Automatic annotation (TrEMBL):
InterPro entries: Apiosidase-like_cat_dom, Collagen-bd_put, Galactose-bd-like_sf, GH
Species of origin: Pyxidicoccus fallax
The name this protein goes by in its record: DUF4038 domain-containing protein
Highest taxon above the source species: Bacteria
Chain ranges of the Apiosidase-like catalytic domain: 23-319
Lineage, broadest ranks: Bacteria, Pseudomonadati, Myxococcota, Myxococcia, Myxococcales
All copies of domain Putative collagen-binding, residue ranges: 379-452
SUPFAM superfamilies, sorted: (Trans)glycosidases (SSF51445), Galactose-binding domain-like (SSF49785)
Alphabetized Pfam families for the sequence: Apiosidase (PF13204), Collagen_bind_2 (PF12904)
Amino acid sequence: MDTSEAAVAAHALTLADYPIRASTNQRHLVTATGAPFTYLADTPWGLASRLSQADVLEYLDDRQAKGFNTLQMMLLPMPSEWGTKNFYGDSPFNNMNPASPAITSVATTNPADASGYDYWDHVEWVIDQAGQRGIQVAAAVSWYGYGGRDWRPYMTTSAATAYGTFLGKRFGGKPHLFWILGGDNDPVGDVASVPAGMDTSDRVEATNAMANAILANESIRHLMSYHAKRRNSSARFFESQTWHTVHFAYSPETTYSYVLTDYNRATVRPVVMPESYYDARTGSPILDRRRLRAQAWWSFLSGGVGFAYGHENVWDLDSAWKTTGLPAVSATDIQRLGTFLAGSPTHLLRPDHRAGNTAKLLTSGYGSTTTNGGLDYAVSATASDASFALAYFPTTRSDIVVNLAALGGASVKLSWWNPGVGGAKTLIGTYAGSGTRALTWPSGSSDAVLVAERASTTPSGTPFRLVNLGGPALTIDGRSWEASSGAPNLTLSGTRFEDQTIPLVPATDAARAQMIRSCIYGTTAAVTIGAVPSGSYDVYLYVWEDNATKTFDVRVEGVLVQDDYVSGNPGQWKRLGPWTVSVMDGALNLATSGGTANLSGIEVYHR
């Protein structure tokens, strides 16, 4: 896991990477090519209506340079704050009617053409400019507003249907969109600020109508969610709707609680934290840099795949957005976080405090969700292949104790990383994968990230059995592997399969590639090795994917050693382990369950 900022950079996105979609197991986001996508957003909500073309470019170039890959933007002006016209004096609708977009007869990108350049031309120009920079636009289509004070009363079911149809036809072919419905408002009740005499009806039906109209008319399928009132999730109102493809966990400062709640829902969807508290607030709570970045770290290590940063001068593009908002150092902390996450397969992380999980990285040091308002609470997450784990501590403490067996019994390398400074990790030490280890707080850190990694995948024991489960005998890394066919004391459960034409990711040497691409597969694939002397063994398992992503568990000697392994896209492979097990009955048993697993090879070393 290389977290040095010089060595690791987030993938530079282009339009070819879009649209973003949910992974097969619905736990994370992936690009159009299947690569993991971490949603790092800024919140210039007024971008499409408040700025000129020149200022839009200045904003986009700055945020692209700072590593943001998404911007959350209202398509309409905010009547309660800015009126109903954009920078160029144009309105989005005729007579404030969402069913009647104000459109000129000829589309143009030239704002000097006052008779041609209409409100929607400008919106489209902003969206296109973001796309040219590889930035996704999370488009809030009709901000309902606090207490329903903005566009909610105008969005009747018929108007919402017509408006959604317009949006799907006009913008639905742009790959880099993400649709946001609602906006700071619950669709049931929550009408205290609707202007007198206007419609205060619930908006569940209208919201569904708008979403389905967009879907029916867009040529590219986009992700979609709902922005409710703070402390409410989109899933509270729309969890069962097919258009609702991402849980939005809108939270106060303690983001971990709200993100984890959405992660644990019965309807599994990627979880994004679409807003927390912004930098430069003038009212309580006022957050310093540490508390601002804590909101992001809590989100990602509690099951979130996305986080939206905000600044008070940027969200509404006020008079200080250039001088105070864009240069704010808090944004560089989010950039640093993104760089750190790009250094490892963090899409494999699962929160240690998820429902039903008892194996955690720490045995002590999490703190309490009630002390100091929960602001001292630490969170941790472990990769589904047990290759690494992370813990984030928002404040200093003296009771941190690590569970050294958290990565499956392999030797563990522990390091500290400073999220407020960045740079290289500071090695704590390497320890056997059993027992616990008390840690001393890293000097000079106000908050800290603990990194636990498997120290080595080089076998330390004596080779006992190395078996190519679906193919012939061969030599890998100078060690002799036996063919499964005719091998003594070996029982396999599964169907044999081989396809030597599929390119492997990552590429590897010819002998290993041949072994990987020949396998046994099944939803209950199993390997039993007999005549095993009593003792302790390290077990490695090669798996690969030839078709669509699958999720499965692995048990060795009846013990769950790999929970919810995600196989990835065609060609992806992994050497799982080592798993240290004791054999006392003369047989070593390995079994999978869940989705279809392709088992290519097994290595067993006597410790």
